[in-house]
Design a protein that fits this description.
alpha+beta; two-stranded antiparallel ribbon; 15% strand; globular; two-stranded antiparallel sheet; 4 strands
Length: 103
């Protein structure tokens, strides 16, 4: 995803009851620790940051996809030298036999 989409997805996952953001350490992958220089960033990213948007960095954002395959969009972005931002979430499901169990 582009940076603003990754941040928005993360924020949406955090806001949902019963959904958790999976962090890089939980997935056994590296966290996103570096950001592209804004001078060379796409206009969309520059506008996002200049407008006060958060950056996709830290344990909530992954340095690479945790999946064994990549999408066409990822391939296109990588081939074009553009950065791809990753975030992962999980829906927490209670087993029917434990619905009365405390959280």
């Amino acid at each position: 995803n582009v940076e603003d989409v990754a941040v928005t997805i993360r924020d949406s996952l955090v806001a949902l009851d019963g959904v958790d953001v999976l962090t890089a350490p939980q997935l056994g992958v590296a966290a996103a620790t570096t950001l592209e220089n804004l001078e060379g960033a796409p206009l969309r990213t520059r506008r996002w940051v200049e407008g006060g948007g958060a950056r996709a960095i830290g344990e909530d954002f992954l340095a690479a996809s945790p999946l064994p395959v990549r999408t066409e969009t990822e391939g296109y972005y990588h081939h074009s030298g553009r950065r791809v931002h990753y975030v992962a979430g999980v829906v927490l499901v209670k087993r029917p036999d434990r619905l009365d169990a405390p959280d």
